[in-house]
Amino acid sequence: MEGRRLHGRLGVLVAPALSVLAGLLLGRSWSACGAGTNNAANSLFLFWLFGPGLCAVLLLTWVAVGAVLGHRPFLHACVLVVTLLGVVWCALSVFWEGTATPACADGVPPWWPSLVPAPGW
């Protein structure tokens, strides 16, 4: 029973942290490329819709992986990392598409590292 409590507490810490980091990354890319309406509207969307929505999806993913792979710690941890990063990548890809602007012709901000592929379909 104690293992489940620890797992739940970690999920409550990791999901909001990942959603905030994804929101910050998306906001920075929109700001650098001049995408969206303006910074106030973009931040309103990121703060009230994107962040809580992604956090809820990440928590549900956390619980689902925990239910399926409960008593295999190493496999559970590996699958959890890959799944959560995949969900964050997909969420970023859905909203990253609007960054193809004159400031960022290829849709990638100038500060984005060339070794990491940019999110997007």
Question: Could you describe the 3D structure shown?
Answer:
With 121 residues, this protein is mainly alpha-helical. Helices cover 71% and strands 0% of the residues. The chain contains 3 helices and no strands. The protein has helices at residues 2-33, 39-68, 73-96. α1 packs antiparallel against α2 (39-68) and α1 (2-33) runs parallel beside α3 (73-96). The longest helix has 32 residues, at 2-33.
Assign a percent range to the helix content: over 70%
Count of helices?
Answer: 3
Number of strands: 0
Low-confidence stretches: none
Give the terminus-to-terminus CA distance.
Answer: 41 Å
Average of the residue pLDDT scores: 84
How much of the residues is beta strand, in percent? under 5%
Order of helices and strands: HHH
What structural class should be given to the helix and strand makeup? mainly alpha
What's the alpha carbon Rg, rounded to whole Å?
16 Å
Largest sheet: none
How are the elements arranged and paired?
Blueprint: H1 2-33, H2 39-68, H3 73-96
Task: Describe the structure in brief.
The chain is mainly alpha-helical and 121 residues long. Helices cover 71% and strands 0% of the residues. The protein is built from 3 helices and no strands.
What are its keywords?
121 residues; mainly alpha; 71% helix
